Amino acid sequence: SSTMSFSEAEVQSARGAWEKIYVDAEDNGTTVLVRMFTEHPDTKSYFTHFKGMDSAEEMKQSDQVRGHGKKVFSAINDMVQHLDNSEAFLGILNPLGKKHATQLKIDPKNFRIICDIILQLMEEKFGGDCKASFEKVTNEICTHLNNIYKEEGW
């Protein structure tokens, strides 16, 4: 089903957890991407301008990596603001999913990778409770993205 079931308490704790990491959206978004590119080098192939970068240091300095990291975090932030409104949440996620499936042709497994790295970073910086509060959000995001991909014939 496309309706989400977050209790008011879950919404509040997920937002609280997200705010902690979103305060430094650009730095944390960059860290997440650099980790993804380093731990899963095949993901670099989607970003033509990151292909030649081998060192994490070089990636961290890149305006394009930083810009995309910020973009990813902004998109998640928009979704987090609408956890209590399925329609608005999907209104953000659907076009994003379609674009990644049809134009960018990004393998959907990469969304899970990015979400897991975000959770890992939350745990490192703010502890297990922070991570636990946000896990359901990442599951929703990945589930809905996978559904969009199925609709697009993946």
Order of helices and strands: HHHHHHH
Q: Major beta sheet, specifics?
A: none
Superfamily (CATH H level) name: Globins
Class of secondary structure makeup: mainly alpha
Instruction: State the end-to-end CA separation.
Output: 19 Å
Count of the separate structural domains: 1
Indicate the CATH architecture: Orthogonal Bundle
Low-confidence stretches: none
Number of strands: 0
CATH C-level class is Mainly Alpha
Relative helix content: over 70%
Tertiary shape = globular
Rg over CA atoms, rounded to whole Å, is 15 Å
**What does the average pLDDT come to?**
93
The name of the CATH topology is Globin-like
Discrete helix count:
7
Strand content: under 5%
Domain Globin: 5-150
InterPro entries: Globin (IPR000971), Globin-like_sf (IPR009050), Globin/Proto (IPR012292), Globin_lamprey/hagfish (IPR013314)
Keywords: Heme, Iron, Metal-binding, Oxygen transport, Transport
Family: Belongs to the globin family.
Brief account:
With 154 residues, the protein is mainly α.
Describe the structure.
With 154 residues, the chain is an all-alpha fold. It has a single domain, classed as Globins (Globin-like), CATH 1.10.490. It is globular, with a radius of gyration of 15 Å. The chain has 7 helices and no strands.
